[in-house]
Every structure is written in structure tokens, then in C-alpha cells.
Amino acid sequence: MKNQKFLVRFLCVFLAVLMILSVIMMVIPVRAVSENDIALLKARRVELEKQLAEQDELIRTLTENRALIIDRKAALDKRIELNRENIDLMNEQIDAYETLIEEKAREYADAVEAENTQSDLFRKRVRAMEEGGSYSYIAFLFAAESVSDFLSRLGDIDDIMHYDRQLEDDLRESRARVDQLKKEYVRIQEEQSAVRDELTGKKELLDGQIEAACRLIESLEENTDDARAEYDAIEKAEAEAYAAEQQAIRQYAAEQYALQLAARAAQQQAAGGTGTYAGASGAFSGSFIWPVDSTYVSSGYGGRSAPTAGASTYHQAIDISAAAGSPIYAAADGTVTIATYNNGLGNYVSIAHDGSTSTRYSHMTNYIVQPGQYVTQGQIIGYVGATGIATGNHLDFAVTSNGQQVDPLQYYDTSALYLGY
């Protein structure tokens, strides 16, 4: 019996909670898209177009002054990045138009239904007037039997005439509303179509810019007179990236060490003990997953023929060929220490996995993580590209252990990979 009462009470409480939740869901507003939202997207695109114009001017100046290719490539990468951002905004704008079109379609359908209802009422009233005769108002008045009855009938006629005028006005407003919504619907569709056409052109332009940027790096082979200067600039850029990476991992190790010391001190204080805690250990188990879906390693670690003039002949990473825009995954859990652009490495991300081991992912189209962010193994951190000194889309993947860059393939079963070098 007690169990039955408990079950009844439980069901009552459960149903009450469901009712409360349903009321809450009813009052939570659904995010609708307005034309103001689209106007904001347009304004952001106008600002981007200004930045693109400035970048075009910079590229023109660098080209005229025969600046180092590494610097011109950096300027081209920036322009490509701005165009990608513009394309993303255009896609967002198209989606906003799509939502707005659906909303206008619903409004239009409701307005047409309201017009039909109003039209039916008006037709019924006209039919009734035709059946009763055009001058039924006068007949109705002169049928009065007294002055008071006449005045009463006069008031009734005024009410009837007011109702008739209101019917006409409502029908007129309904038709005007339908016409207005139809025009808005057509206009929004035309605007969306124009953005779609513009998007196609922007994508073609972007493809051409990427191809031109890669050709610029390939032209290093022909510029033998400038190859030494280019090589020095590339080497300097990569050395700066490596130094920044080492500094970041040292800082990360120091922070982790301090946290562990503080934790051990708190434990000893709570236990009433003494002593010191030495050594920092991270959560990294020494196990990496492959960072991209492609398993084609086009360039290995160590000695190699330079793929282009100015490129290092001792490769301290591996190159994995992959399609542009392919996702790049964090090889292991860790903290992002660097996410930036480097003239040599392009867009790159470095992740510290413990106090002595880190991985670096270079030449990304873009990254989607920020310094200080904790990432888990397999999490997407960016996408494959050809930014920096690269002649094609690939991931430059490097591993640093105890301050030294090591062969990343030692962490993997190479029988599952295709080694194309």
C-alpha cells in the first residue's frame, strides 16, 4: 500500500514538473532572423572588403619593390584568410535569408488565409444586401411605427453601415498586406540569389588566389640569385617558431610544476607531514593518434631533397598530404600553447602534452583553438592548407621531446601508413 501511495505521489510530482517545463518552453522566445541581422552581416562584409582593398595595395607594393617571396606569401595568405572569412559571412548571410524566406512564406500564407476569410465575409454580406434589395435601409426606416421606433431603427442602420464599411476596410487592408508580403518575399529571394551568385565568384577567386600563392613558392626554384636570402628568411622564421614553441612549453612545464608543488604541499599540510615534492609528471601516456584522415606521408623526418629552393634539406617533421580543408586532430590531450601565423610555417598550432613533450601542426588554412585552451585527443584543432612556405595542401607535423625535435613516426605503426618518399 505504501509503495502504491509513493508511486502515485511520484507520478503527480513528475507530471507537475512536465507541466512546468512545458510552460517554460512556451515562454522561451525562439530566435528569429530579422532584416537587421542581415544588415549587420552586410556591414561586417563591407569592413572586410575595406581590409581586402588594403591588403591588395600591400601586395602590389611588395611585388613592385621585389620584396622577399616569403614576405609576399605572408601577404597573400592574409588576403586568402580575409576572403575565407568573407565567404563564411556570405554563407551565414545566405542561411539568414533562407530562414527569413521561410518566415515570410508563413506570414504570406497566414495573410492569404486572412484575406480569404475576410473576402468570404464580404461576399456573404453583399449577397445578403442583394437579396434584401439595394434600398432595404430606406424600407427598414419607413417601416417604423413611431418616432422612437424610427430613431431606434436609424441607430441600427448606422451600426449596420459601420459594420459594412469595416468589412470593406478590413478586406482592403488584408489585400494590401498580402501584396506587401509578396513583394518582400520576392525581394528577399532575389537578394539571396544575388549573394549566391556572388559567392560562386568569390570561391572561384579564392581558388585562383590559392593557386597563385602556391606558384609563387614554386618560383623560388627559378630565383637562384635570391635563393640564399630567401633561405635565410625561411630559416629565421622557422627558428623563431621553434624558439617560441620551446619557451611556451617551458612556461607550461613551470606552471604545471608549481601546481603540483602546491597540491603536494596542501596534502602534506592536511596530513600534518613535512618534506618536499620533486618532479613533475603530466597526464600524457606517450600514445598519439594520427593527426589527419590521410595516411600518405609525402616527406619523412631527416635528410631529404629540398621540395623547393630555400626549404630545409634536413626536415625536422613529417609532411602528410591531405585535401584542403581536411580536419586536423589533436594527437593527444594537452594545452594549446601557440596558435598563430608564422611566415615559414603559416598558420600553426602547438600543443603541450606534459612538461617535456609537445606536438606542432603547421600550414593550416585556419585553426579553431586558442592559446591556453585544453584540448582532448581527437579534437579538431584546425584544417589542412598551404599557408606559409608550402607548394601544396599538407600537414607539417612535428614532435618535440625533452627540448629536441624527434621523428613523429616513432610513435606510430608505420605498417598502417603509406610512405611516399
What does this structure look like?
- The protein is of the alpha+beta class.
- The chain has two domains: 35-218, Orthogonal Bundle (Helix Hairpins), CATH 1.10.287; 234-270 and 285-419, Glucose Permease (Domain IIA) (Distorted Sandwich).
- The chain is 58% helix and 15% strand.
- It contains six helices and 13 strands.
- It has helices spanning 2-27, 35-64, 69-132, 136-142, 147-218, 227-271; strands at 296-299, 302-303, 314-315, 318-321, 327-329, 334-342, 346-352, 357-367, 374-375, 380-384, 394-401, 404-406, 418-419.
- The N and C termini lie far apart (78 Å).
- The model is unreliable at 1-8, 10-30 and 274-282 (pLDDT under 50).
Task: Quickly name the level 1 CATH class of the largest domain.
Answer: Mainly Alpha
Shape: elongated
Mean pLDDT: 82
Helical content stands at 55-70%
Low-confidence stretches: 1-8, 10-30, 274-282
Radius of gyration: 36 Å
Total separate domains? 2
**Could you tell me the strand content as a percent range?**
5-15%
Q: Could you say what the CATH topology of the largest domain is called?
A: Helix Hairpins
Question: Based on DSSP secondary structure assignment, what is the total number of beta strands?
Answer: 13
Helix and strand content put the structural class at alpha+beta
- Architecture of the largest domain, according to CATH? Orthogonal Bundle
Termini distance?
Answer: 78 Å
Along the chain, the helix and strand elements come as HHHHHHEEEEEEEEEEEEE
Task: Count the DSSP helices.
Answer: 6
Major beta-sheet overview: 11 strands, mixed
